[in-house]
Amino acid sequence: MTSTIMNTTDIEVVADHCLEIGEVILPGDTHYECLLAGKKESELNDDFNRLEQRARDISKTCKVNKVVSQDDGRVTINAMFDFDCTVEKMIFELYLRP
Predict the structure, then answer these.
(1) Residue 28 class from Cβ within 10 Å (0-12 exposed, 13-18 middle, 19+ buried)?
(2) What is the CATH number for 40?
(3) Which residue, 17, 30, 45, 62, has fewest beta-carbon neighbours within 10 Å?
């Protein structure tokens, strides 16, 4: 009988921009919405502009809209992105993950 010696090595996998196993992908899920909140509208607009540019990098035809609200010195921007297909939205979401 022959014996085999197996060496094992721990492998650390660092994966950015990945999906969770079992994550549901729905056809037609093309709308992404987020809320930006803070005290300075100019800073929020900068954040929104970065999001808009990222969306445009993914899809030149992405429809982008925002609604700015002010209440008691607090500013919010409701940012809405309508992509052409589910994959574009997923790519956008993956870029937003930490």
Answers:
(1) exposed
(2) 3.30.70.860
(3) 17
Give how many domains the chain has, as a whole number. Answer: 1
**Of residues 27 and 51, which shows the higher confidence score?**
51
User: 44 lies in which domain range?
Assistant: 31-96
Name the token pair of 56.
């445009």
- Domain contains 2: no
- Please report whether residue 86 resides in a domain: yes
Average pLDDT over residues 14-28: 64
Judged against a pLDDT cut of 70, whether residue 4 lies above it is answered with: no
Count other C-beta atoms under 10 Å from residue 58's C-beta: 19
CA 89 to chain centre: 8
Phi, psi of 76 (to 5 degrees): -130, 145
- Rg for the chain (alpha carbons), in Å? 21
